[in-house]
Write a structure and sequence with these properties.
It comes from Leeuwenhoekiella blandensis (strain CECT 7118 / CCUG 51940 / KCTC 22103 / MED217). This protein is mainly α. It contains nine helices and two strands, in the order H-H-H-H-H-H-H-E-E-H-H. Strands 1-2 form a two-stranded antiparallel sheet.
Length: 279
């Protein structure tokens, strides 16, 4: 490939073309990125188990397929959000969604390459229903007002990012014996946390989670993201009541819960994702 010609496709002028054209170019870049990722799979992935079960969290490939399922969901959501035009009147939000979309596409390609590099099969991409049977209308396809659709786009993005952060953290223990995989997962986890904070800021919220509150304006259907076996309102860390720690203790309940984030188990993450999966 002629490198100069390739780079020319991503000049400022080209990037200002209509969204469908930009999406096509990012798709081309993603295809190239997948090939590059396959050649750079972290050391240690080749020793992973050959089991390829999307919802199993007891083996390395199972963990990667769970992560891939969540990344499929996020990747498609942001792509559809950008295509919908709902963000067209908010340049800041559109720019943020475009950047996050590129990250999620990278994550999909990386995880796919990692699983294939381990000699296993990546889980097939599900069909998603982001309306949850008509509960939401985030892409303004069924007549919801622009403001309503925009609010729902932000609310769902927050739920997806917070789910991803907790889910990656919840699988860390299952990757302890595979240092290369654990390192890669933590690198993605920290980026997902940055996404979550950025989306919260867009919604006019603080960047952290207070207790198990989903935040003003969040649909009740997303509460499971903040509950789980270990709720985000947990104040016991390492056997200590963290409200008794820190300068000026006792901390308030809010500050104590904000200082620590909790995990979601694999089953909990699958249950949340399944709300948006048709098949």
């Amino acid at each position: 490939m002629n490198l100069i010609k390739f780079l020319d496709e991503f000049t400022t002028d080209k990037m200002q073309e209509p969204m469908t054209s930009r999406r096509a170019m990012f798709g081309q870049l993603g295809s190239l990125g997948k090939k590059a990722a396959l050649a750079a799979v972290p050391f240690g992935l080749a020793t992973a188990s050959n089991k390829a079960m999307a919802q199993s969290t007891g083996d390395v490939v199972g963990v990667l397929n769970l992560a891939l399922t969540l990344e499929y969901l996020e990747d498609e959501f942001y792509a559809m959000a950008l295509d919908s035009g709902v963000l067209s009147n908010n340049a800041k939000a559109e720019a943020i969604y475009m950047q996050i979309s590129k990250h999620e596409s990278q994550h999909v390609d990386f995880l796919t390459a990692a699983i294939e590099g381990a000699g296993a099969d990546p889980v097939a991409k599900p069909s998603f229903d982001f309306t949850v049977g008509g509960t939401f209308d985030p892409f303004n396809e069924n007549g919801a007002g622009q403001a309503t659709a925009y609010a729902q786009l932000l609310a769902l993005a927050q739920a997806f990012e917070d789910t991803g952060v907790r889910a990656y953290k919840g699988q860390a223990a299952n990757l302890m014996g595979s240092a290369g995989v654990l390192t890669a997962a933590l690198q993605i986890h920290s980026v997902e946390a940055r996404h979550a904070s950025e989306i919260r800021r867009l919604r006019g919220l603080e960047g952290w989670i207070t207790g198990n509150e989903r935040g003003a304006g969040m649909p009740a259907a997303t509460q499971a993201v903040y509950d789980g076996a270990t709720t985000e309102a947990n104040i016991i860390q390492g056997g200590l009541d963290v409200t008794t720690l820190g300068s000026g203790s006792p901390f308030t309940m809010d500050a104590a819960t904000q200082a620590y984030d909790e995990i979601l188990t694999g089953d909990e993450a699958v249950t949340i994702a399944s709300l948006f999966i048709e098949s």
